[in-house]
Write a structure and sequence with these properties.
Elements (H helix, E strand, L loop, with lengths): L2 E2 L4 H17 L6 E16 L12 E16 L2 E12 L12 E11 L4 E8 L21 E10 L2 E9 L22 E10 L5 E13 L10 E13 L4 E13 L5 E14 L4 E10 L42 E11 L4 E11 L10 E15 L2 E12 L1 H7 L7 E10 L2 E4 L1
Antiparallel strand pairs: 1-5, 2-3, 2-19, 2-20, 3-4, 4-5, 5-6, 6-7, 7-8, 8-9, 9-10, 10-11, 11-12, 12-13, 13-14, 14-15, 15-16, 16-17, 17-18, 18-19
Amino acid sequence: MGKISLHFLIPFLLMGNASLSYAQDDKKADDSFWVSAQIRTRGEYRNGALYPRDKGESPAGFVNERARLTFGYERQKLALRFSAQHVGVWGQDALIDKNGRFILNEAWASFNMNDYWFVQLGRQALVYDDERILGSLDWNVAGRYHDALKIGYKNNGHQLHGIFAFNQNDENVIGGTFYDSSKTKLYKNMQTLWYHYDCASTPLQVSLLAMNIGQEGGDAATRKADTKYMQTFGTYIKYMPDSWNISGSFYYQTGKNTASRTVSAYMGNIDLSYSINRLWSVGIGTDYLSGTSDADGKYKAFNPLYGTHHKFYGGMDYFYATDFATGYNPGLSDTHVGVDFKVSNAVSMGLNYHYFATAVKLDNLKRTLGSEIDYQLNWKIMKDVSMSLGYSVMFGTSTMDVVKGGNHSSWQDWGWVSLNINPRIFIK
């Protein structure tokens, strides 16, 4: 599923007409067809976002945009979804442009085998629990999607999903199954089991996750495959009594990484929030992701894989959304507190503080990485139209300079404003 042109849209418009005709001809039909559109434009000022800037480096600025068109079709026991999007930065294309850079970010079919079991196949987002391990990464202009088979079961508060994927670069004729992930940053194969239970008598949710990731450790020059398998096991728990929201998770990783090192790593978090009244809420939490300080032996740095890292480890995306400096993966300790205020039914804002430190002690370095302050305001302008803006500041340390780069004596900040227009423009 690669690049496509605008001609992609025509068959689905025809499908919509066919769906309408079918519904008119057969009054007993239970078909529905809908179309939604999204224009999401975001302007950013970057003066130390993603990576700390060095002294004397100038800030950057740009406007990016997502243009997405989604078609959905549903009838009893069957659903299909196709979503095409164009993403990019204002000005990157010529005024007269023929590259046709549309991609499919969703293309899947789902059908129910009975009242309890379903199968979903194709390109889809994998979003589970609080998105620490598997998330949609919707903050990113492109989002994240997987080509996978999902088999699921649901009954009386119990859910069970099995997810299976196998990736290759092309339709190879011969030559084995070497997979070059240098551009895709994807796994070679994946098998995941997820179990979730919603307790009927108390506001309690419990999930269990077991994931096996096969990553290519072979040689790109000879295309000799050598798959390395790493396993992630863990649980997520959420409890919401009265005005409280209490959640926590723990995950452990084992197996081998692509460098053939034995993995023994873990992460855990706990978050508590309390709604003081309908206007104010406060929260506090901590995350710990193990790190490694040795160049050999067991690899103890936890990999949060395909989670939505922007959601957890600070808005400036220094951790896990971007890499540590070469030779370092010291893990992360993130203690955070925040307050949210609902100005009106249409406007809300939040202020969060993060204290970052390395999980392991590095030679001749203090563990403290720095502090970050994030502010965000959300405004629902009208139905299907909303605006958000944010501003963040990072106060780094000399340890941050070593493990992430840049110069902590330079002012590091980041600001953005985003307009999101996302109506459902047709439904039948």
